[in-house]
Specification:
alpha+beta, 138 residues, 22% helix, 8 strands, 6-stranded antiparallel beta sheet, globular, homotetramer
Chain lengths: 138, 138, 138, 138
């Protein structure tokens, strides 16, 4: 399988299918080996201690791996997460988050890989998520 | 350690610390062996296929285990998630979610356990999350 | 689906398919809601600090959930683990381990659930594993 | 923190602390950014279907991340796994396994990272594990 989408087609898809959140996301790079996004951080994403909440980092990891998978298989919107294990590594700044996805296996029914989450101004990753997505039959 | 909070004190804490989301949550039961909450589902929580999004279920699991831990150790707001592994089991209805937390280990520095998520109208759980929270020193 | 095997048929299966390790395992209870096994601990399972190694606890969780699944679907030996997330909660004694499996979802292609591991002489669980098994088509 | 051990000192440590299994492992590379090991596969590691068992891959991931951590912090043998989430991606050959560890966070009390497992003769990884180790105080 090979990367088949354009940045515009993925962005349009995100706006159509997830209108509630799409305006916060930005697709930075959709090449096969470096699928990367950003999430604009606003007050709704903060939590006590002046940091970004765990569910916000989960959301970015989930959306990033979803689009990284669709980038390879086409716009199958019913592709769904079956498992995610996420480690929170460092306290993020109150700044935008950046994600980088890696697909480790792309089979007929499953896409498995991981996502590193970075916070602007911190060199090391703030979270690491391993995800499995189930791909619906054609 | 034993359960030390009232439902009102936990609800007040949630409203104070997480004003962005607190109005969607309801604490149902805070007994030690059955800590349970509900999350009111609105349009922002939905995703393609007429179901509730994975990040919404993660959010409920995370908030539930956070409050189940604070219910035992007191209102240490800087208690933070270090790991969550979540399995999505069934497609939820577009209805409110119910959570039930179980603490498996409550040490000085870590709280470890799991949360089952139910969707109104479905008998079996729709998601199962295992979580670890790090407890700050006194 | 309902529980369909006998303790003897599962034990015979284990001896036939896993002759290297089967003599260390004992099936205690195979009822649908309380599938339980024990693992005899010997020197090969120990690690520094006078405790049982993590891989030994993983092995017991994996075998227990495998047999708990086969107990429901029949002896499909090619059923394979696709994911396991395990939390190590307490230091076990140098004594036999006991496991208790719970199936949370049994679909046509996946079995998902968790296993608690106990160490003789300790009331609280020493490990908790969430597992997903992939079931081969008929 | 920086890499501080030699291949010989880590190998000696493994033989002293884990005499039951040390002869099956080989340390290939101990540089900071490419900590790599191999595990010699024998009959005891096989399972039905002519493949290597899941617990064998878990064992290699666990030992590799343990030594990758000790390579950075020195020989603290009581460093213990607190969490591992492992995805099994492909059926391994009945050949030796190779592991590659990556440390994502090395703090005073926790080491967090992941390990890719390869099977000789297969280009893509056969398993991916995310691990957290707890480091004892000095």
């Amino acid at each position: 399988m090979k990367q088949s989408m354009t940045k515009k087609s993925l962005t349009d898809f995100l706006e159509r299918e997830f209108p509630q959140v799409s305006q916060s996301f930005n697709i930075l790079d959709i090449s096969e080996n470096n699928f990367s996004m950003s999430l604009k951080i606003t007050d709704e994403h903060l939590r006590p201690g002046g940091t970004v909440s765990g569910p916000t980092m989960f959301l970015l990891a989930d959306v990033t791996f979803y689009l990284a998978t669709l980038n390879m298989i086409g716009l199958k919107s019913l592709t769904v997460t079956t498992n995610c294990s996420i480690n929170f590594l460092r306290k993020p700044n109150q700044k935008d988050l950046i994600s980088k996805a890696r697909i480790l296996k792309l089979g007929k029914t499953l896409s498995v890989g991981d996502v590193l989450i970075y916070s602007q101004g911190i060199n090391e990753p703030v979270a690491h998520a391993s995800l499995t997505y189930s791909i619906p039959p054609n």
